[in-house]
Structures are given as structure tokens and as C-alpha cells.
Amino acid sequence: MATGRQILRNAPRPPEWRAERGRYQVTPDLQPLSPTQLVEWVAGVAHEIRNPLSAIGNCIEIIDKQLDLQGDSKELVAIALSECERLDRVLSNLLSFARCSEPLLQPVNVHELMERVLTTLRYDTRFPPTMNVVRDFRAPLQQVLWIDRDQISQVLWNLLINAIQAVPRDNAIKVTTCLEEDDWFCLSVQDKGVGMSPEVIQKVWQPFFTTKTSGTGLGLAMVQQMVRKHGGHVRLRSEEGQGTTVTICLPLRDNASIP
Questions:
Q1: What is the CATH number of the domain that holds 4?
Q2: CA distances in angstroms from 121 to 125, 164, 185, listed in the order given
Q3: pLDDT digit string (tens) for 88-146?
Q4: Is residue 138 a contact partner of residue 184, using CB atoms and an 8 Å limit?
Q5: Which residue has the higher pLDDT, 195 or 7?
Q6: Is the pTM of this model over 0.85?
Q7: Alpha helices in 131-241 (DSSP H)
Q8: Are residues 116 and 197 in the same domain?
Q9: Are β-strands 132-137 and 172-180 bridged in parallel, bridged antiparallel, or unpaired?
Q10: Which of 99, 115, 147 is the last residue of a domain?
């Protein structure tokens, strides 16, 4: 009786296969996607997923209101809605990462931008009421940078969410700004959480790498991508059991302070 390997070896090869160095390879009919085509493909897939996902979430909410569920049933509905929201965030992050365009530069008071993000953060369900944000602004409070407001807001948001998730609910995170060598505006987000091992630090910038059970693995990858598009760079310092500090540095060229 012929084995599975013998059957595969003796099976007729389709005409699009060709022999090379004694081995059969498939001749691809499709050309590799260009970066632009890949972005369009990702956007299309995300759009196709998001529409039914939104419908599912809406249906669950309607069922919850009409049936007046209690106990375990109520909890299951809450879990379902929470997972829908999580998947929507995954899609949003995926689209932001794939579509990351060139920054639309405009003069922005960076400290005012930071305060707006911090205020918004306090209304996010992931921000514990007992959490404290320590501000250590050493750069001029009226410092203006030529930046993309939306992209840098997203950068700061991602760093703050990471820091919040790394520390106990009654702990604090620290936000620091300073000028370095008259060439860079640097913003640091520091936590005293669990920290990272050297092995994790090596992988932390890779898209989709995460140590969280509910993470997308795109937060820091997006931070690095957006900061680099601004001509800046990102530094990370972390030690297990001691915490993590992530610093973004943006160029000061063509920047000034508000008079």
C-alpha cells in the first residue's frame, strides 16, 4: 500500500508548476502587492469587518435593553459588548498603522496639547480614579513645535495607556518634558510598574508583539513610526520590577516659542 508521501510524489503536477534543482515550485500568478496596494487591501478588509462588527454590537445593546437581562446573562452581554469594543480598537490601530501618512505640520503649543490628552484620558474607562499623573515640565510652557497635532496626540495617548496598564491602580505615572542640546524637545512617560526583560525589549517595537492578554501589539510600533516621520527618535529604558520610561525626541528646527 502506497504511503501518503509516495502518493504525493507520484501525483501529476499542475501545468503552472515548474522544476528547479530537482524540486517543484509554484510559479506565482500574482505580483507582490506594492505598499500602496497593501494599505488599500488592509483598509478594505478592516472596513468589511467593522461594518458587521458594528451591527453585532448594536444588536447586543438592543437585546440587553429589551429583555432587561439580569445576573449571569447581563454579565455575558457586557462581556460581548466589551469584546466588540476591543475588536474595534484593534481595527482602528491596524488602520492607523497601515495608513500612517506624512505628518501635516503646523505650529502647536505642545504643553497645551499634552494637557488636552491628559484631560481626555481621565474620562477613559482604563484610567483608574485613584491614579495620579505627575507633571514635570522643564521645557518652556509656551514651547511651540511644528508637528501633526493628531499624530502626536496619538503618540502620547499610546504611551500613557501603556504606562497606566503597567502599574497598580493606586500608583502614579510621571510625564516629563525638557530641551536637549537646544536641538530636541523631549517628552518622557515614566511608570514604576513591572518593567520589561531584555528579551521583551528587543521585540517591543515589532508590530503585533505584545505581552498583554488584550493588547494589539501596535501601540509602540505606531509611536516609533509617527515619531520617525517627524524626524525624531524614541528611547526606551526598562528594568524588570523597576518600571519603564519611554522618551520621544522631536526636532526643534523651525520651531519657536509663542511671544
A1: 1.10.287
A2: 9, 10, 23
A3: 777 776 776 666 678 889 999 999 999 999 998 888 888 888 888 999 999 999 999 99
A4: no
A5: 195
A6: no
A7: 149-166, 198-203, 219-229
A8: yes
A9: parallel
A10: 99
Residues 110 and 94 in one domain: no
Tens-place pLDDT, residues 158-192: 999 989 888 877 688 999 999 998 789 999 999 99
Percent of the chain beyond pLDDT 70? 75
Q: How many whole angstroms separate alpha carbon 51 and alpha carbon 84?
A: 12
Average pLDDT over residues 82-86: 80
Does 215 lie in the same domain as 250?
yes
- Tell me which residue range forms the domain holding 134: 106-257
Give the total number of structural domains in the chain.
2
Give the β-pairing of 172-180 and 143-147: unpaired
Element (H, E) at 143: strand 143-147
User: Nine-digit cell at 119?
Assistant: 484631560
- In degrees and rounded to multiples of 5, residue 83 shows phi and psi of -70, -35
Predicted local distance difference test score (pLDDT) of residue 10: 54
The residues near 16 (Cβ < 8 Å, ≥ 6 apart) are 26, 27, 29
